[in-house]
Amino acid sequence: MIVAIESASTDLSLAIAGPDGTIVAHAGWTAGRRQGSELLPRLLALLDTAGRAITDVTSVAVGIGPGSFTGLRVGMSIGKGVALGLGVPIVAVPSLEAWLAAEPGAAGAVARAGARDAYLLERGASAPVLVERDQVSGRDAVVIAPHELAVAFGLERSVPPLQAAMAIATIAAARLAADPAGDDLRTLEPAYLRAPRGIGP
Q1: Residue 76 three-state SS
Q2: How many Cα atoms are found within 13 Å in the side-chain-facing hemisphere of 196?
Q3: Alpha-carbon distance 122 to 109, whole Å?
Q4: Where are the alpha helices (DSSP H) in 26-116?
Q5: Which string of b and e fits 116-144 if b means at least 16 CB within 10 Å?
Q6: Structure pTM?
Q7: 16-22: Cβ within 8 A, 24+ apart
Q8: Could you tell me the CA-to-CA distances from 153 to 64, 94, 146, 147 in Å, in that order?
């Protein structure tokens, strides 16, 4: 059983999937500033609702960003803790790629990078780029963006990434089928892309 965690924004999601990526249960919600306190209790509740226990987990998949510094630290800590405690593989999935996989109709995915800029991954691009607010706010195409970012940047045609954990689980299942060892738990870190405000190089 795969447990997937996506916490790169204030719109969080979780999923439970079979080894082949078939979704068993999922949940998505807007946490606001409560990212740190809600993720683990909701994961345990989702497992309980699905009739599963934490000891049933055979692998962990986690979104690695870019996005919220706090959210990524919390999600990564929980994912690594479960993987280490149970001795199971962990798979890292770039968050914006998962957002796009979960919403095939969206042209791009946008995560907050600062007060006036964001990370944008356009569909078909190889990596996200740092853009200013004006470079995303006037777009006609649908983009995936957390609710708080959509409001702050005036993104009228946006959908929140509340289904992302399901995509993370599916991507992880394919990765594990090819490489059952997963990623290196010891060196795995969030993809912050740049240091948070107030922290120098």
Answers
A1: helix
A2: 11
A3: 6
A4: 35-49, 69-86, 95-102
A5: ebbbbbbeeeeebeebebeebbebeebbb
A6: 0.93
A7: 16/46, 16/47, 16/50, 16/52, 16/169, 17/166, 17/169, 17/170, 17/173, 18/173, 19/58, 19/59, 19/173, 19/176, 20/173, 20/177, 21/169, 21/170, 21/172, 21/173, 21/174
A8: 23, 23, 11, 10
Q: Say which amino acid occupies 66.
A: P
- What is the number of H-type helices and E-type strands within the chain? 6, 10
Which residue in 110, 133, 148, 135 sits closest to 30, CA to CA?
148
3-state secondary structure of 87: coil
- Phi/psi region, residue 11 (left: phi>0; alpha: psi -120 to 50; beta: rest), is beta
2-17: pLDDT as tens digits: 999 999 999 999 999 9
Could you give the C-alpha distances from 37 to 32, 43, 60, 196, in angstroms and in order?
Answer: 11, 11, 20, 21
Number of Cβ within 10 Å of residue 148's Cβ equals 18
Distance of CA 175 to the CA centre of its chain: 16
CA distances from 196 to 8, 92, 191 (A): 13, 21, 12
Q: List, for residues 10-52, the tens digit of each pLDDT value.
A: 999 999 999 999 999 999 999 877 666 889 999 999 999 999 9
Instruction: At 174, list the tokens.
Output: 């394919």
Cα 4 versus chain centre, distance: 9
